[in-house]
Specification:
Blueprint lengths: L5 E6 L3 H12 L4 E7 L2 H11 L3 E4 L8 H11 L4 E6 L4 H10 L3 E4 L5 H12 L4 E2 L1 H12 L15 H11 L4 H8 L3 H15 L4 H10 L10
Parallel strand pairs: 1-2, 1-3, 3-4, 4-5, 5-6
Length: 223
């Protein structure tokens, strides 16, 4: 085992929760908690400053939600991998977290100390970690639909439309996509409208599902 510790950022608006997580992690000398945040904006700022290996992030936080934090870290602290630790077990929460870039998702009322440490190791190593219950919800969400019918494939899209589609499916805002691609926000909106028209898909969830089914996000796949 390497002597180098896994550096961790804790982001949760409850001090007692952070204390409990810290105690669990520091029972193992492999882990080091380098920073703690009580809200979303602070989490992003501390991640930029400390560049932790793993950020353990709650969803319901002031100023910026865990979804927003996760998506922003993909750009502002790209080396930091995100593990969601939340009380929300609804499939839409799990789906949204994965689309934003989370590598793992644990439920606060189900995860035990050893499972939390195992999840951190897995996410740090580049793998994903979902409990069986969360994985089942995620699979159901990916199988489920909103009545979108099978339509055209990737061949009808331009290279730039594919780039925009990947950004949408990753949970990025139009502003973030524009910055990444070096184009205007209005141009992103135009491409987005074109995607929906060409693919006959009317929702962001539908576009995301299309991208996942087409294998455009294989590098962030949860399995």
């Amino acid at each position: 085992m390497s002597d180098q510790k896994i550096r961790i950022l804790l982001a949760d608006d409850h001090a007692l929760v952070r204390e409990g997580i810290r105690r669990v992690l520091l029972e193992d000398p492999e882990f080091e908690v380098v920073a703690e945040a009580a809200d979303g904006e602070e989490a992003v700022a501390l991640a930029r400053e400390h560049r932790p290996d793993v950020a353990i992030v709650d969803i319901s936080m002031p100023n910026a939600s865990g979804f927003e934090v996760t998506a922003r870290l993909q750009v502002e602290a790209a080396s930091t991998r995100v593990l969601i630790l939340s009380m929300h077990d609804d499939v839409e929460y799990v789906m949204r977290a994965v689309r934003a870039g989370a590598r793992g998702y644990l439920l606060k009322d189900e995860a035990g100390p050893s499972q939390l440490r195992e999840a951190v190791r897995a996410v740090h190593s580049g793998s994903s970690f979902f409990t069986s219950a969360v994985a089942a919800r995620l699979a159901a969400g990916l199988r489920g639909g909103e009545g979108e019918q099978q339509g055209p494939g990737l061949d009808v899209l331009t290279a730039r439309e594919l780039d925009v589609l990947k950004g949408i499916a990753a949970g990025q805002s139009n502003k973030q996509i524009a910055a990444d691609l070096g184009i205007s926000r209005r141009t992103v909106e135009s491409h987005r409208e074109s995607l929906m028209r060409k693919l006959d898909i009317r929702t962001v969830a539908g576009l995301t599902r299309f991208a996942l089914d087409a294998g455009l996000l294989d590098d962030a796949a949860p399995y």
